[in-house]
Amino acid sequence: xxxxxxxxxxxxxxxxxxxxxxxxxxxxxxxxxxQYTLRMGWHELPWxxxxxxxxxxxxxxxxxxxxxxxxxxxxxxxxxSEDAMATVKTLLPxxxxxxxxxxxxxPDDIKWYYNWHWxxxxxxxxxxxxxxxxxxxxxxxxxxxxxxxxxxxxxxxYTNQLFSAYQGYNPMLNxxxxxxxxxxxxxxxxxxxxxxxxxxGDLGGTSIKVGxxxxxxxxxxxxxxxxxxxxxxxxxxxxxxxxxxxxxRNIRDAWSNDRSSWESCIYNNTVCPNLYAxxxxxxxxxxxxxxxxxxxTLQDDYFLSRLPVVEKRLAQGGIRLAAVLNxxxxxxxxIRRTSR
Length: 340
Ligand SMILES: [Zn+2]
Hints:
Structural class: mainly alpha
Bound molecules: zinc ion
Strand content: under 5%
Pfam families: S1-P1_nuclease (PF02265)
Number of strands: 3
CATH topology of the largest domain: P1 Nuclease
Keywords: Disulfide bond, Endonuclease, Glycoprotein, Hydrolase, Metal-binding, Nuclease
CATH architecture of the largest domain: Orthogonal Bundle
EC number: 3.1.30.1
Largest sheet: 3 strands, mixed
Number of helices: 16
Catalytic activity: Endonucleolytic cleavage to 5'-phosphomononucleotide and 5'-phosphooligonucleotide end-products
Shape: globular
Protein name: Aspergillus nuclease S1
């Protein structure tokens, strides 16, 4: 509660200062992550739930779900052009110390707060049960029916904000470009998580209760966090950097022929989230939901066969984030456009 009050006082600040305020309490991410997993707000949690969450904070447990966002942004950093890297650094909050990957979970850290609650529907898009396809005009709306309030709508929106500032003709538009960058980097990762484009009936796997080895959880959380956490712990010596490096090696070797097709968008568009979402729901049907009915305990078979899918989606998210930022922050393109 104290943390909440402290943050509220900071809310009036803008831009970079607002980012700094959000990084004052690392433990807070656990609460947010759990609420996100449950898709409910703090006030909707039963009091016992709040007490348990605060107890976790006291014990300093944190960092759930951070690895995926860290990996996507770290991979992207490696493929940024000089122009893009320079612009990203000018936009990053001071707390990032020049590292995009260190702040890519920020939208998960804030969506719990009242002033940011409107962003909570921007992390995913639900699709009709068992259709295994996605359509923007059919699927992109929030629980109140507001159109464009979903992960693909958010990616279009924040790309447009950055485009109008860096490639457009009206640099005077009053957008917070630091926030736009961090939202874009985060949602680009989210849209690549297959169950962020899952079925509406099970809330993207959130209501499918499963076992993960010896613990109880839900299928959405398995894909958000547990596959990655288990891989980092058991295959990469508890070092997320080792996992990122392994993915980077795959991008250079096994997936080297795929990279340019991952980067490109139809009609030379700056970004193509509808494509990423369509891929995700196909992966959800083919890999996430398969053999994971309610009550199943998922173990080695599931973990080892799905980990390559997770790693490939992290790679695609990173490569595509870099490609979008390179297009947005390419000053040659702007010079070419304005000199026509
Ligand atoms: Zn998210």
